[in-house]
Hints:
The structure holds 2 protein chains of 2 kinds.
Chain A: H1 2-7, H2 10-27, H3 31-58, E1 64-73, E2 76-84, H4 86-109, H5 116-135, H6 139-157, H7 164-195, H8 207-219, H9 231-245, H10 254-257, H11 263-272, H12 274-284, H13 286-290, H14 293-314, H15 320-340, H16 344-371, H17 389-403, H18 409-424, H19 426-451, H20 466-481, H21 495-499, H22 513-520, H23 523-543, H24 549-556, H25 558-565, H26 570-616, H27 624-647
Antiparallel strand pairs in A: 1-2
Helix pairs in contact in A: 2-3, 2-5, 3-4, 3-5, 4-5, 4-11, 4-16, 4-20, 5-6, 6-7, 6-12, 7-9, 9-12, 9-14, 11-16, 12-15, 12-16, 14-15, 14-19, 15-16, 15-18, 15-19, 16-17, 16-18, 16-20, 17-19, 17-20, 18-19, 19-23, 24-25, 26-27
Chain B: H1 2-8, H2 10-27, H3 32-56, E1 66-73, E2 75-84, H4 86-105, H5 114-133, H6 137-146, H7 148-158, H8 163-192, H9 199-205, H10 211-228, H11 237-244, H12 247-272, H13 274-300, H14 305-326, H15 329-360, H16 376-389, H17 396-409, H18 425-452, H19 468-486, H20 489-511
Antiparallel strand pairs in B: 1-2
Amino acid sequence: MADLILKTSWLIAALPLLSALLIMFFFHYSRKLSAFLSIGAIGYGLAHSLLVLTVSYLNPERTLELNVPWITAGTFKLFVGYLVDPLCSMMLVVVCAVSFFVQIYTHGYMKEDPNYSKFYSYLSLFTFSMLGLVFSTNLFQSYIFWELVGVCSYLLIGFWWYKQPAANACTKAFLVNRIGDAGLLIGLLMLFFSTQSFWQDKVTLSFGELKNALDWAISSNALPIIGVISVTTIALFVLMGPMAKSAQFPLHVWLPDAMEGPTPISALIHAATMVAAGVYLIARAYPLYLASPMAMHTVAWIGGITAIFSASIALSQYDIKRTLAYSTCSQLGYMVMALGLGAYSAGLFHLMTHAFFKAMLFLCSGSVIVGCHHEQDMRHMGGLKKFMPITSRTCLIGVLAISGFPLLSGFWSKDMILASAWEHSKILFVVGSLTAMLTAFYMFRLYFMTFSGEYKGHAHPHESSPSITTPLVCLAIPSIFIGLIGSPLMPGGDKFSSFIHYGEHHMHHEWGVSAFVHEFLTPQGFIPFLAFVFGTFFAWLIYRKGVSVNEYIKKNLSFIYKLSFNKWYIDEVYFWILNNMIMPVYKTLWAACDKLLIDGFFVNGSALVSSIIGNRLRYIETGRAQLYALVIFGSVLVSVLYFVFKMR
Amino acid sequence: MLTEFFLNHALSIILIVPLIAALIIALLPDKESICRIVALVFSLDILLDVLVIIVSKFDPHLTALQYVESYRWFGDTIRIKLGTDGLSISMVLLMAILLPVVIIASEPIAKDKPKFYYSMLMLLAASVLGVFVAQDLFLFFLLWELELVPMYFLIAVWGGANRNYASIKFLIYTFIAGAFMFAGVLFLFFNSGANTFDMEVLASSTKNMSSGIQLLCFLLFFICFIIKLPSFPFHTWLPDAHVEAPTPVSMLLAGILLKMGGYGIYRICAGFFPEVLAKVGIFIALLAAVNIIGAAIACLVQDDMKRVIAYSSVSHMGFVLLGVASLTSAGFSGGIFQMFSHGLISAALFMLVGTLYERTHTRLISDYGGMTKYMPKCFYLFILASMANLALPALSGFVGESLIFYGAFSSEFFNNFPTRFHFNFGQICVLFSSLGVVLTAGYMLWLLQRVFMGKENTKWSGLSDLRMSEVVVLGTLLALVVLYGVYPVSLSNLYEPSSTALLNFVSSNLSN
């Protein structure tokens, strides 16, 4: 039975693909059938992936890997296949669960859209690509699906192509990701190139053999740790991929713009699954990073910088979805930082908890947007608590979870990350705690501005339909409880880390309430809690009690305020460089090279010369170009014959 | 009996069928629909013949020539010798696939002088197919030059406003190319001492020649082929020709005529002069990198859709050069895959641009905007074709490019050119070319965005979406793009042994 469950697990990915194709080619005329097919496929996937998780959890040693050759050229072979191990089974459940609830929600959110069926087929296509990425057995296959999720994201951001911002955003998202992909591709090339003799009779770049390959390369001096072609540079090139996909500084610019897409997409792709793929890839390629301390430091610092940097922007945004988008950047920064600090389990634990509560928060924001008749500016909201009771309550749960309210899911995962930061780098601990404070502040700011006080808009807000609120309630449950898996309150201690870990796992010997209290009262346990308290308190003071700190800052510290409000002018800098440096250079290059030099000087110049000669010879009427060709042909012929006979 | 006759004369049959077709069409009444249907029947017959050739007796693992036919022509020196191997049969297959597709796409163009048009198309098919199966160098050259005649007329008669300039430019460039090749052919003939134009014999007799003469011959051929390919600095005829050529002719031009250059490089530059290729490989790699990046940059600054696609062809054919220059099995194999896949993708892209042009009579990107509203089918197919063009995995463009990148990066020949930066010179070219991945995405998506997204231009509100025939054309091409992208082995099995054999031949020559 267990064997069968694992062996047929490819169905989890195959069914969404099938449903996407069926909808695209046959059933796009029927809204009901499209929704049914798409939700049915992922519903099956969710059930199956829960079974896979159970099997895998009962026996974590039991893994399954199957490969088929994809292309061969001489000694160069590439494979695709599927791999089921604890990490994969966890991700399967996360992706399937979020996708399932988002697809139900989509029915409510998109029901008036004329392209409803197409939306479902894209959603299914994305789910397939994401699951294919999760199932990947090797880095190369990851790259294939990595790009496929990117293109699905492109299609979905640009779903409302007639809106100019959406059109800009999808192009930007794809291009920024492409920069990362180019780096990833170079990294993979270098890695394979340096270890190619290792892979002779193995699956090329497979995750299982990555560690052996690197050990072999380092011990046989094929690959130094530091150098131009070295473990470090490969790791950093590979890191470019995750930096783009997981929106890490300085390649984060596409994620906030991607919010122009429909809200279910923001929840599924740009909060829960695809953006976490970067973190997943780093985790899969972990041996590469562990082999190079410098790469690990870089990863940790990029994560830390992103975390605090995006949080600082989220403080002053008015668009409800953009605030959440910057918050996503910031939380992804936590995950990346955790992996960089060597806290493998903690990073992935946060990935899981974050997927649930952030997906729910986005869905809440969608519910609010629909309820307020497509208003996204929080200044025109307020007091929605009494109009939208379910949305406001689930949103509060999400806000508490992300801010780290004790015992909710975000509290456990964030705590685990900060605890390891305390161990490895005190500066990053400070950065992380500050971010935690900012997070609590801007999340409560969002909550207060939207749901409490008086309504400031002009629409007639109303609670959304059950197909929207049900997924909210369903996602609220894991947002509250899922963190307990990784808590010391579980009998036997942290279950998550003992299930998903890299290398040796140090079991927590102590567990139970007293162990929790003991851990909580250490500085690394208590400071994040204080951060939460202060952040919430300030938000309450400013946005509930109306203490006019904002006005003061706007007036006297306008520099800081503007920096945050304008996203540190990163976009402006990029576009300035693009418009004022890169494009003019390209234009000049092309004009100089093609138009002036080749066409202008050589081609038309030689035509001119021939026409002058032609004029002199009074052969104008015969058409000078043909004549010219004939002259060339003849003269080459003559010169060749001359050479030939001279040589004889 | 009949099947045996067919199998014994298969290659001459696929050359004669289009010639007969051209003749029959010339005798038909001057009505577009009749001519088109006759042409279509003949082209489907060619496709069928090619498929029969492939499935019946063709053995990809046999690396020697197959289906060989040899007839006396001018004495024993110049013979009509035909034969095929994995490399040439895949190009023949590409031509056979494109021909019916192009004929279906010709409907709106050929209203004017249909008899002439379809006859020319068939003549073109005969000469291009001939180039791919000719095993006699003189015949090869003759057919190479013959292809000019129908192509010149196709551009000059059915082309756009500036067609005279474009067709003459095309003619001059290709004529010069032919002159170089002719010089190369004669030079080779007189210096090899083999007293035959048989390509197999010539390939093995070049090593008796002194290295200086080899280099000269190589260059004469190589210049001819990179004019056709086209490559910097001989590429400027291509955008002009494409812009003025009618849609179906553009499809053929990008789809198959450019591949003659690539095929020639494989067959003659690599097959005849392996030692020279190894010596100048590094320069070819540099040229390839210049093509890939330079043409991609040129794409970014164009306002004419056809020019964008035309320059994109230059950029993508640069990959073929890089693959050949690498002298690795991955690079060789990737180059052939890239030619095949680019044939399909560029044909699809030109078709898409053509459908837009046919409706709006403008190719300027700035005239468009929000076209999705009026032409949703066109938009979705355009996305698919663009994604294939920017080498999205699971579409055919990716396979060739990744093989070539890997091949060039791991090439041992490039190790002879170390630099101070730890990478060898070839690897630096590869790293540089990988920027092209970003640039390609840039110009394709930017094009998509400006044409199809954003606020619609109400000027085009009366436009109709794709017709059935257009969907068939694009569907066929893009279905193959998906098929070969998802399951590349289905194509690479056909040519892989031949390309490896060619590589082994090259390497064995080098080690001696």
